[in-house]
């Protein structure tokens, strides 16, 4: 039967064409097999498999991998040393370096310099962490007249450790005649902190807000903060009180209740901030939208806040030390103050007051500063909520001026006239 079918010339021609096509198909198939085998055995197999797998992943994960696999920057090969010596530091820093708020004034300026000169470099290696420090080649050379290893604040020690900086001490003589032992080839940096004066007006802690955020992520990642605040989460309000002197007497009950009434859905946390762990202190500040309390060392942790956080500090009459407001503003926070209405706090600070001993006899006439620094005080709750409402819910009768919100100000701002005009029109119609 088959011989009859292919006996004709057209049939033989068709058969030859079919055999040719089958042969071509077999060769092509073998070439594909060889190509696949060569790819599978090549040194690029892992990269190819990752590239193929990435097609099925969300864009965010693809971006994250690109950031991780790119070549990361390196710090300068020469080590940069920040010298903290007795002769070049302001009195409050060189005599109180063991108290971390004062020590930070010197350490943060050096840190900003390290960032700007590439002695410390940053990058984003994980989107859940955010941009943070990845490499450093820096050190602190500390005069023993300023601080010794035994007196170094644990808080400052942990901050310097997170910077990745080396710490060395050298023995100096009063007056700064001894040169710091900087190794040959290394770079010396001595920050002129006297440029901060007058220190009550403005203290330069850090050169750019992002420098603080890079450092914060060494302790607390962005993902940890996003779990607590932001998006559709309730407002997070932190209230801090001092455990001894300069306590706000009515803070825990009256003021907290007034704030809760003003922001009924907010989550309010009260603390006297006896938190021994540095990382827990940082997390407490980083996860708040509003922080309220009497001025004190705890507010140095404002370094760790996220942009837009409102920090309101309260001052008793006579004790006015606005040293941390610049820090709050330099990290992109909003600094507010409360002090007694109708006074000039700078004047009251230097006013002489008569003091008596326990028997009622004349003791002396010190500045009111030294009396108020130990005094507990009361703050009108409505004045606190007015300031918070003014900054959180802008109202035409409130204005903000240089870190202080005046709740009774009647000066107009853009749009204020239109609001008044509408009210006048409604009165006219009646």
From TrEMBL:
Top-level taxon of the source organism: Eukaryota
Pfam families: Glyco_transf_61
Keyword Lyase in record: no
Keywords: Glycoprotein, Glycosyltransferase, Transferase
KW Glycosyltransferase (keyword) present: yes
Occurrences of domain Glycosyltransferase 61 catalytic (ranges): 212-312
GO MF annotations in UniProt: glycosyltransferase activity
UniProt xrefs under InterPro entries: Glyco_transf_61_cat, Glycosyltransferase_61
UniProt protein name: Glycosyltransferase 61 catalytic domain-containing protein
Source organism (scientific name): Chaetoceros tenuissimus
């Amino acid at each position: 039967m088959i011989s009859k079918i292919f006996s004709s010339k057209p049939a033989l021609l068709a058969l030859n064409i079919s055999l040719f096509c089958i042969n071509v198909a077999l060769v092509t198939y073998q070439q594909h097999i060889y190509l696949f085998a060569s790819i599978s055995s090549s040194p690029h197999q892992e990269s190819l498999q990752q590239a193929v797998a990435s097609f099925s992943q969300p864009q965010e994960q693809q971006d994250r991998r690109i950031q991780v696999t790119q070549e990361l920057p390196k710090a300068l090969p020469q080590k940069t040393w920040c010298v903290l010596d007795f002769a070049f530091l302001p009195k409050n820093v060189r005599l109180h370096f063991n108290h971390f708020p004062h020590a930070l004034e010197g350490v943060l300026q050096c840190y900003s310099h390290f960032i700007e000169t590439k002695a410390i470099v940053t990058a984003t290696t994980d989107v859940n962490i955010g941009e943070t420090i990845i490499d450093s080649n820096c050190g602190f050379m500390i005069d023993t007249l300023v601080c010794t290893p035994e007196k170094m604040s644990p808080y400052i020690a942990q901050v310097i450790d997170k910077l990745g900086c080396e710490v060395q001490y050298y023995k100096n003589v009063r007056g700064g005649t001894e040169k710091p032992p900087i190794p040959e080839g290394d770079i010396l940096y001595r920050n002129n902190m006297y440029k901060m004066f007058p220190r009550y007006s403005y203290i330069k802690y850090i050169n750019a807000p992002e420098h603080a955020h890079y450092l914060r992520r060494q302790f607390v990642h962005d993902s940890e903060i996003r779990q607590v605040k932001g998006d559709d989460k309730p407002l997070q309000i932190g209230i801090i009180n001092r455990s001894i002197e300069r306590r706000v007497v009515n803070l825990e009950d009256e003021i907290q209740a007034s704030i809760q009434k003003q922001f009924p859905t907010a989550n309010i946390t009260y603390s006297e901030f006896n938190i021994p762990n540095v990382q827990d202190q940082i997390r407490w500040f980083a996860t708040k939208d509003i922080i309220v309390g009497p001025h004190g060392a705890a507010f140095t942790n404002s370094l760790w806040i996220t942009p837009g956080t409102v920090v309101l500090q309260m001052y008793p009459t006579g004790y006015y030390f606005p040293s941390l407001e610049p820090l709050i503003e330099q990290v992109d926070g909003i600094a507010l103050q409360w002090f007694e209405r109708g006074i000039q706090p700078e004047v009251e600070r230097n006013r002489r007051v008569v003091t008596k001993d326990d028997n009622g006899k004349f003791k002396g006439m010190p500045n009111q500063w030294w009396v108020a620094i130990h005094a507990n005080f009361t703050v009108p709750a409505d004045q606190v909520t007015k300031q918070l409402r003014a900054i959180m819910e802008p109202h035409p009768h409130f204005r903000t001026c240089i870190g202080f919100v005046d709740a009774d100000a009647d000066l107009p701002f853009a749009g204020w006239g239109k609001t008044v005009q509408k009210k006048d029109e409604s009165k006219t119609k009646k």
